[in-house]
Amino acid sequence: MATHSSNISVSYSNLRDFIHSAMLSQGLPDADALKVASLMAEADLQGSDGHGVIRLPQYIKRIRAGGINKNPNIRVVHEMPGSAVVDGDNAMGHLVVSHAVDLAIEKARHCGVAWVSTRMSNHAGPASLYSRKTLQHDMLGLYFAVGNANHLPPWGGSDMLLSTNPISAAIPGAEEPPVVLDMATTVAAYGKVKAKAKRGEQMPVGWMIDRQGQPLTDPNRANEGFLLPIGDYKGYGLALIVGMLAGTLGGAAMGRDVIDFNADHVSTTNTGQAILVINLAAFGDPAVFKQAVDKLVRDIRGSEKLPGVERIWLPGEQSHEKRQAYETQGIPIAPFLFDELNLLAAELKINPMVKNTSK
Amino acid sequence: MATHSSNISVSYSNLRDFIHSAMLSQGLPDADALKVASLMAEADLQGSDGHGVIRLPQYIKRIRAGGINKNPNIRVVHEMPGSAVVDGDNAMGHLVVSHAVDLAIEKARHCGVAWVSTRMSNHAGPASLYSRKTLQHDMLGLYFAVGNANHLPPWGGSDMLLSTNPISAAIPGAEEPPVVLDMATTVAAYGKVKAKAKRGEQMPVGWMIDRQGQPLTDPNRANEGFLLPIGDYKGYGLALIVGMLAGTLGGAAMGRDVIDFNADHVSTTNTGQAILVINLAAFGDPAVFKQAVDKLVRDIRGSEKLPGVERIWLPGEQSHEKRQAYETQGIPIAPFLFDELNLLAAELKINPMVKNTSK
Lengths: 359, 359
Prior knowledge:
The structure is a homodimer of 359-residue chains. The first copy, chain A, has 359 residues and is of the alpha+beta class.
């Protein structure tokens, strides 16, 4: 299997252009294709490699099957000064959530805070891609989403009524990088289970259980069990609340209504997301806030360490370092994925992906 | 030690009146004393017995030591249409948070959503006491707080820079009880550790570790270690984000600045809380939303169960059942606490607590 050192490297702009071409080949309008491509490539740029270009074949499959509206009328269906519901008209999720985030930022300028929910959206990539969009406006962002496949039962149950419903928060510092949390409410995201299977590795106890409640460690038997929530019943509660906020509130799918978009490429997913934007200027001087964040970040980083611990990380700090490195060195792409994408390119009759020539 | 069956039972109104008298004896204005008493008794009524009248001796100690402002000027110091910062002027926390919640509900009526932060507040009891206040207005509430003592280091560290920073969410159903999450971001709240010590029991592995990173199971050695966050690094991230939202954003204490209010009865705690209120009417027809919540609740409750599981609970459902039972049967008070409170009553020269005569 591929190891990190054998990865191929692709520049952000080449990756974006490749995805752009792929989306254009499917008939998306140019501006939409470019926006989706930019966000997908940015996911890889920040190290969210389970949510970037690796999803392209699946997205293309769904578009071809008619499961995505290529010419959507994304529109606001409910609105108050600080809130809105955006109906995505079954567009690519990246377009719907971008629309929601831009609207929430505008509303937060005037109200101090804003909450925008989406309905009729689709999978939109990593949560932090959107919470982070607030940072350049001296705002902070929280993002909630209903995951696109149910792998989590209620605590004590065995019906998979919940997804890994993620939470993200992005909080700006002054000189320090932003604090960016991006987490599934399960111990492991389902993508990590699939990655273990690909690598032929066992899962640690605590990731999954089987229908008897016994630990499940063979990732090839993943369909015989379910994910475990963080903190037992607490993570179940969090996944449920996140799902109600991101799904039920805006009229999107939740619970039994969630479509498994890995298995079904046609049915409308009616995916829901929600973005909460807080305008720092409404709470005092943003510069004072950001200095307080820096102080906190430095206190935490400087904490005494447990034996054997080399470094204390802030949420989002590893992703921040990847972003900085990949901007100059290019984005690592696993060889199996590189090959898969170039097979796709041949099929779509677009140019293959261009890898970096310098090592 | 006290067992449940030997508990003494006290009616809500008798418990409230007792606390009211205690607060009056310390010179709180009547309306303030009554509001604090009502909220503290309500905490016990909903089964949050670690955050109700059990805290009275500590609160009295702090008031007597001058650590609480008995005649505060609780006021808004920053405001936009959907947001505010409430400076509590070092009042009893219950008064400050009530003020913030009332303001947020009013703002959400006009903006669709509102976020109100507190600073210069104090310990205010269980988180769900406040998130729930939104329900009767066809709104939903989220509440975040900075805990009043640091027992949690950053992941990999051993400096206790974080508290158990709780999250609560209250979401109304139509016929079903509301879904109410109220959780610390640590595996166990510190109060549970203290309860284990009182009962002479060991803690399970996973609650605490010592400064070598080894499991700590003796609750009498709790000061030699720290609490563990839910989901390892994820809970650390959550505790940090909650603390920044509830503390840093509004200019309240966070990180190194948090006062251990168990050890220090004098220093101003500058406690911060935050309430987010969402007006259901801004997102569609509240009745439709509440019916969707009912359907989800019933699907979850009706899930197939793992072997040995008798019932699947929704977040807040056990508390809801306690509230219903205690309203008619009275609130159980452990004998040690009943005795402690009546010793306090003698000291304060107020009437002792009246227990239920029936049974």
